[in-house]
Design brief:
single chain, 271 residues, alpha/beta, Rossmann fold, Ribonucleotide Reductase Protein R1, domain 1, 3 domains, two-stranded antiparallel sheet, 7 helices, 24% helix, 19% strand, globular, binds guanosine-5'-triphosphate, binds magnesium ion, binds zinc ion
Amino acid sequence: MRRAGPTRETIAIGDRVKLSLFEDGSASIEELLPRKRALSRRAPGREAEQILVANPDQSVFVFACADPDPNFRMLDRLLVVAERESLPAVICANKLDLVQARSAHEEFGVYEQIGYRVLYTSATTGKGVGDLRRELSGKLSVLAGPSGVGKSSLLNRVQPGLGLRTEAVSQATGKGTHTTVARELLPLEGGGYVADTPGLKAFALWDIEPNELDAYFREIGPLVKDCEFNDCTHEHEPGCAVRTAVEAGKIDVNRYESYLRMRSGETFLER
Ligand SMILES: Nc1nc2c(ncn2[C@@H]2O[C@H](COP(=O)(O)OP(=O)(O)OP(=O)(O)O)[C@@H](O)[C@H]2O)c(=O)[nH]1
Ligand SMILES: [Mg+2]
Ligand SMILES: [Zn+2]
């Protein structure tokens, strides 16, 4: 099946397949069943889609409050893909122990205001880990985010015994060291599965047109009908309801900046 061609046909974790079973107990994959949804990106360095996890019920986007500092541009792109796929998204603000709780709530609170659940956690102190465990229970979840933010550490706290390898952030670069190398589905004691994934160096959008973006920004979509021009790009047109909302402080300036960058096609770059 790998030889069958484009990456769309490659099997990813979470995929459902049809097997032929042989008498010696081995099996072969005969058919890839249609995907309900997928968390995917543009494959680094190739014109192709790369499926990170197929058929997840929910995604947990993990970022550190510090060490490394949160990359909100990447979070915004992950959220766009989740919206496109109708994939429920939870945000996890980890390493809460490294910052003042108030500043973390200010930074990540922007996402709570537009309707996302944000879990404030520390894999070191255990804070918020119970909430994460409950969130994961009974579903197929994917944890995704940059390297070094504590995805594997959190899962080790959620379920001691998983024994996932973790590694300190590099002092030289301030970045994670890409410790987790394989995507894998881990069965949870409380039911469900969670996919630990290798830290993302980049998360570029695949197959999303600029004019689709309105619908994938929860705070922008509902305003578009109030723009004067129905093909408004929300960049410079007069009578733009989106820019009016940004100027009035009703839409976060950084989210708007993310929107403009995605619109202009700047989706290849990490920052
Ligand atoms: N202070 C603090 N350190 C943490 C926390 N969570 C994880 N760490 C540390 O951060 C480093 C990276 O943690 P990992 O769990 O390996 O990070 P990861 O996201 O799985 O990284 P990759 O597998 O490379 O994607 C380790 O040194 C952890 O001990 C936390 O809540 N607080
Ligand atoms: Mg890891
Ligand atoms: Zn507009």
